[in-house]
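ZP: hey, is the copper (II) ion complex queued? I don't see it on the tracker
AM: it wasn't, my bad. submitting now with these inputs:
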Amino acid sequence: MPLTRRQLLGTIGRVGVGVAAFGGGALSFARGAAPQPAARTITLEPRVVTWELAPGKKVMAMAYNGRIPGPEIRAREGERLRIVVRNLLPEPTSVHWHGLDVPHAMDGVGGLTQKAIASGESFEYEFEARPAGTRWYHTHVEEHRQMDVGLAGPFIVEPAAGERVGDREVTLMLDDWRTGTGTPVPPTHDGIGAFRRRPGGAGLAIEGDHAATYDTMTINGKAYPATAPLRLARGERVRLRIVNASSEHTHVVRVAGHRLHVTHTDGNALEAPVEVDALPIAPSERYDAVLVADRPGAWWFECLQPGHAAAGERMSVMYGGHEGRAPGADPEKVDNLRLWHYALGRGRPRLAPVTGTVREIEMALAGGLDGNNRWTINGRAYPDTERLTLRREDAARIRFVNVSHDAHPMHLHGQSFKVVGVGRGRLARPLVKDTVDVEPHMASVTVEVTGTNPGVWLLHCHKPTHMEGGMMTLVEVL
Ligand code: C2O
Ligand code: CU
């Protein structure tokens, strides 16, 4: 039986405890009680490190402040932050605040909203943290290299007022790695729908595969057995903030023996939690889900995609008194699981209503033929793609149609959008998101973008190789 939103609400006093307990690397800052007129300063120093993904598995990586994922930034909604990025890498970089509605000049796209930060130089980002929700940050220069080797971290914006979800919370950032060791993981071209169409999810590799080979999957920078166990007390409700920072892979996560109560899509609240067995998450998507600790024992949190758990994407979930026990295998077959998909959710209308005109636009997503890395929108590769111009308050209904064999998680900078339709279906209560996965083989998704934040914003596939190959365009909000 699904729990109501109210039942999932927790006590305010305990929020935040989980972050420190999990060792995910929350930065702690002194906070004044009074409203802060001045910006709080945070420093991020990207640099090259040797990172141990698992015992004996060391890689050359890039890390913010020496850790992967980068330090968790936490701010209150509306809080003014000054984030100083000191580039200690031997090459240029920039930082993008994914899912935050920052002013255009602070968006962190090297070569578009700013000059990339040269090696040895600094750049100061300054903005108000909003909207509330699970956001993240990552490099926006040479993403296909830099993001792929660790330059990403969580950015949590706590609501200025209002309800809290769960008794405590834990942030989980998922990532994929190419180490050249271990067993290659089959690609997840089918995106978030693979399990619905093909129960069991097997056989996802396709011919002429151009995707790079990934062999290690991590949770908070570590592959099992190095993943930190999630410890549970019976009866508690833990809000998981799950971020998929992977370059290529869609993950399908579950906690054996439990259901997940999905409360937020890309940081934005649903009207009521949606209870599922497993949660498919495309690259750059985030989901918040409450885990109700009502089945004492030792279990796995793991990804169900073929090869992912074996490549490290799992951690033990231990109730007090069950430490040291081997996590139990799940009795249920994957085929019988109830999976999250967009049509299950009813979004809360956070975005401003459209007061101007609404335009209908179609964007055909194509490419990747014969194993080459050219990816297009309506037949053109960036920078030759057609720019979309919107007056403020006007909206565009963009129907993405995927004519390729690979899923494309399409992301818009600067403002979130509404997911108003999936295939021929309409969503009665559009989800609020900033990334939408468009599944391959003629699947379509319709989003409604309202111009609220002036500037020239990127709209692109979040798989860095696809971006690099041209699947990118600009949305100009006047
Ligand atoms: Cu996560 Cu262009 O962004
Ligand atoms: Cu793509």
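AM: back. The chain has five helices and 31 strands.
ZP: great, adding it to the tracker
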